[in-house]
Design brief:
- The chain is mostly helical.
- The protein is 46% helix and 11% strand.
- It has a two-stranded antiparallel sheet with strand order 1-2.
- Strand 1 and strand 2 form a beta hairpin.
- Helix 1 packs across helix 3 and helix 2 packs across helix 3.
- The relative contact order is 0.19.
């Protein structure tokens, strides 16, 4: 479950789930946050094991991590 995430982290997680190729700029616009906030949140989601960044910043994409402890 996403119970250990705050509301903004859940918003970013759901944006990534809906569109793995979404950019941090696009996320910032969609949820009305700064790019720096989005960077902090994506870093947090990576460190918590919810998402991974595959590839580089320009041509990469986000991947949702499916782990039993998140279900």
């Amino acid at each position: 479950t996403l119970n250990d995430l705050n509301e903004t982290e859940k918003d970013v997680y759901n944006l990534i789930k809906d569109n793995p190729k979404i950019t941090r700029d696009e996320m910032a616009l969609k949820i009305n946050k700064t790019i720096r906030t989005i960077q902090r949140i994506t870093n947090s989601l990576v460190s918590k094991g919810y998402i991974l960044r595959i590839g580089n910043n320009r041509f990469g994409y986000w991947e949702i991590v499916t782990c039993s402890h998140h279900l």
